[in-house]
Write a structure and sequence with these properties.
Elements (H helix, E strand, L loop, with lengths): L1 H13 L8 E6 L9 E4 L7 E5 L3 E5 L7 E4 L11 E4 L5 E6 L11 E6 L10 E2 L6 E9 L6 E8 L10 E8 L10 E2 L15 E7 L5 E7 L2 E7 L11 E5 L5 E2 L7 E2 L3 E4 L10 E7 L8 E7 L10 E2 L9 E9 L4 E8 L9 E7 L7 E4 L18 E5 L2 E10 L2 E8 L22 E2 L10 E8 L3 E9 L4 E11 L2 E8 L8 E8 L4 E8 L2
Antiparallel strand pairs: 1-30, 2-3, 3-4, 4-5, 6-7, 7-8, 8-9, 10-11, 11-12, 12-13, 14-15, 15-16, 16-17, 18-19, 20-21, 21-22, 22-23, 24-25, 25-26, 26-27, 28-29, 29-30, 31-32, 32-35, 33-34, 33-36, 36-37
């Protein structure tokens, strides 16, 4: 029986299998038909997080995203998509969305609902001033020094209107924790059309600077536009700054999706690190053609006066699709985290989800896959217009849609920071006929138990030690135990050893060799 078990496990261990290093967790199941997710993490307690999704879904987690409870959000003003989540320094969560107010008006206001109990219950909400027009694609930010909330969005004179109708970027703020909102102010000087296309001004996202500066970026007319205010939003630049060309426009085609976009996201480093005050803008476009969509980064170290050349975030070879990106900054350390869909591993519409991280202010990037399984979206169902990601104090939670058999699911991933850049698809080393062989543990990553298989060419004393990522010994699995020649399997019980999630190394020592392997624990 021992020989059969050893041979069986050895066959599994030798096989080529692809694993995700970061466990995927369902936030909104397929039965809810969700898309366009958003997420926020409590900066005071990263175990607490809230997520939202089209059209009216909200969920909360009390254990850092390992499990979720969801329900339908309600408001007398209607809940009609484009969810955006925010949390202030008092752990109050805010859910922004479009409105479907009863009656003839549709999307006639932006609604903000507030939760005082970490996402479990929500008030009826407040809303921006009514003007008889259509309001779309809002995003908001909170100034952590004052808890003032700033919001920007697009207003259409008439959606899909005629030549005389315009789209513009509006700004408002709340100084009383989302109870009331200032009169909306137009901040762009060049309007767009109302076709919901490249010449429409859309995707306005605000960010806060170290001294309360307000920065806003949006797309339109095949450009990225930038504006800023240094007096709390009372005044803005006389003329919008065009900071980059967006080749092919913000609306582009991706096979398998009914629509896709590269709308920009802006954020500012507020950490105490060397890049404090640096502005970053993340977007995507098709500079190199319809079959080569890329994710880009711009940065400014002088408050938006000047900008770097575009920096490519995805690190694959040319000719593949990366799309529907989002990014955030962990303000405790200044690290930049990006999430995007990626087809680098596939010749067709099969799609993975990738992340990238930059720990040096956007100079270099580590790309890594976070989805456990690839999927192929189809145009039969709306996939959504964006992904999202939140990070604080080393807790990083991306959120995205996947599609199976024409229906969507919303997932997050339990990112282990120490495992970023660590491959779990390592090939076995090349051995001589006399060397012992140490195989990759299986399963890997693992929760609970995993199995380590090794092969001895001759009788030997064997030790098997376990070390953490700092090089400290955490367990002795075997200690100078005599083994004959043959194949053997040992069990590592991470829970019995009280091992936390992270990267570890197991080391096999024999009379003639010392061999090391990496493994990942996900508890």
């Amino acid at each position: 029986m021992k020989l059969i078990t050893s041979l069986f496990l050895s066959m599994i261990l030798i096989a080529t299998v692809t694993y995700s290093q970061h466990k995927n967790v369902t936030v909104f199941p397929q039965s809810t038909r969700p898309n366009e997710p958003a997420i926020a993490i409590d900066i005071n307690n990263p175990q607490l997080m809230v997520a939202g999704s089209n059209l009216n879904l909200v969920a909360y987690s009390r254990n850092a995203g390992k499990t979720w409870k969801y329900k339908r959000l309600t408001s007398s003003y209607g809940v009609w998509g484009d969810p955006m989540l925010l949390v202030d320094t008092n752990s109050n969560f805010y859910f922004f969305h479009l409105s479907q107010y009863p009656g003839p008006k549709w999307l006639d206001r932006i609604v903000c609902q507030k939760s005082l109990d970490m996402g479990k219950t929500w008030n009826d909400g407040s809303f921006t001033e009514l003007d008889g027009k259509m309001h779309d694609k809002e995003w908001a930010v909170v100034d952590r020094r004052t808890n003032i909330i700033y919001m920007t969005w697009t207003v259409f004179d008439k959606y899909q209107g005629g030549a005389k109708d315009s789209s513009n970027i509006l700004f408002t703020k709340s100084t009383d924790n989302g109870t009331t909102w200032s009169k909306p102010m137009r901040i762009n000087d060049r309007g767009g059309d109302c076709k919901d296309d490249d010449n429409t001004v859309e995707g306005a996202v605000p960010a806060i600077g170290p001294n309360g500066e307000i920065y806003v970026v949006w797309s339109g007319h095949n450009n990225l536009y930038f504006d800023k205010s240094t007096d709390g939003g009372n005044t803005w630049l006389k003329n919008d700054m065009i900071i980059a060309k967006q080749y092919g426009g913000w609306k582009y085609d991706i096979p398998g999706l009914d629509r896709c976009n590269g709308l920009p996201i802006i954020d500012c480093d507020l950490s105490k690190g060397e890049h404090n005050g640096t502005l970053y803008i993340n977007y995507s476009d098709q500079k190199f053609g319809l079959n080569d969509t890329d994710v880009w980064l711009l940065k400014s170290t002088d408050g938006g006066e000047t900008w770097s050349k575009r920096i490519r975030v995805n690190d694959d070879k040319a000719g593949k699709q990366q799309f529907l990106n989002w990014f955030t900054i962990d303000q405790t350390n200044g690290y930049l985290y990006f999430v995007f869909y990626d087809r680098r591993n596939h010749p067709d519409k099969m799609t993975d989800v990738y992340m990238a991280v930059s720990k040096d202010g956007g100079k270099t990037f580590d790309n890594f896959k976070i989805s456990e399984e690839a999927f192929a979206p189809t145009k039969s169902a709306f996939f959504g217009d964006y992904t999202n990601i939140a990070a604080t104090n080393g807790t990083i939670r991306p959120i995205w849609s996947r599609m199976d058999t024409g229906r969507t699911t919303i997932l997050t991933a339990l990112i282990i920071p120490d495992s970023i850049g660590v491959s779990v698809e390592e090939e076995s080393p090349i051995y001589t006929d006399f060397d012992p062989v140490l195989y990759q543990n299986y399963p890997n990553p693992f929760s609970g138990r995993t199995y380590v298989s090794f092969k001895l060419r001759e009788s030997s004393l064997v030790s098997l030690f376990l070390y953490n990522s700092r090089g400290q010994e955490v367990a002795s699995i075997l200690n100078n135990k005599q083994y004959p020649a043959g194949k053997f399997v040992e069990t590592i019980n991470g829970r019995k050893l009280n091992l936390k999630s992270g990267v570890y190394y197991y080391v096999l020592c024999t009379n003639s060799s010392t061999i090391t392997r990496k493994m990942i624990i996900m508890e």
